[in-house]
Amino acid sequence: MGLKLHNISKVLIIIYFGNLLLYSFSSIFSFDYFEKIFWFIRIPILVVLYYTTSMKKQTLYFLALILYQLASILFATSNPAFFTWASISSLCFKVCLCFLVVDLVTKKIKIAVAVAMIPFFVLFLYVIDFVVLSLGDTYIIWILNTLLTSFIVGIAVIYYINNSDKKGYWLLISAILFVIQIAAFFVNKFYVKNEAIYQIVILSYGVSHFTFYKFLVIKEYERIPYHNN
């Protein structure tokens, strides 16, 4: 990465986390107009950051971010029909992430990954059980969503145990925060409306997306021959 590009990426990272903090503060102090603005531009900023710094500019990751943005917009409405489509969009987002990490699974660790994902999936099922009536027809969609999330976490845990490299470190942080984000989202939306829990949603989502971006960019650079030499 050239010096100019490096400086641009640093500015974009500052903008990303600055926006995240402003979104958080706007929510705390009920500045609804500004909160909507900072909420909406969070993913577009990440899209620009990835486009600027990525060597491959993978269409699948762009699609994942678009699906997440769409899900967020639909979740923000109170229309039950929109919630169904938001759930589907969120599931498709997780499918995209799975395709982006599945190549880390080798024959040597595939059984370990399957075992590692079990406790996280059980935890998700426990959380879903609290809000099962509120989920309605989307119950199966969220079972699949949490299964895929558990798969990502299983990969992250086992890969980091076996390699402990930078991309594994960023993926592990991202995966753990995705777990926290989903659990906090369910509790805040269906169980207890609480600003503190919503702040957990905001911060866990923001950092989890950034750490996944870091994982992906490092992974791309590692596969460039001249970069490794």
From TrEMBL:
Q: Is rRNA-binding there in the keyword field?
A: no
Classify the source by domain of life.
Bacteria
- Which keywords are on file for this protein? Membrane, Transmembrane, Transmembrane helix
Q: Provide the transmembrane region boundaries.
A: 12-31, 37-53, 60-76, 82-104, 111-133, 139-161, 168-191, 197-216
Q: What is this protein called?
A: YhhN-like protein
This chain's source organism reads: Flavobacterium terrae
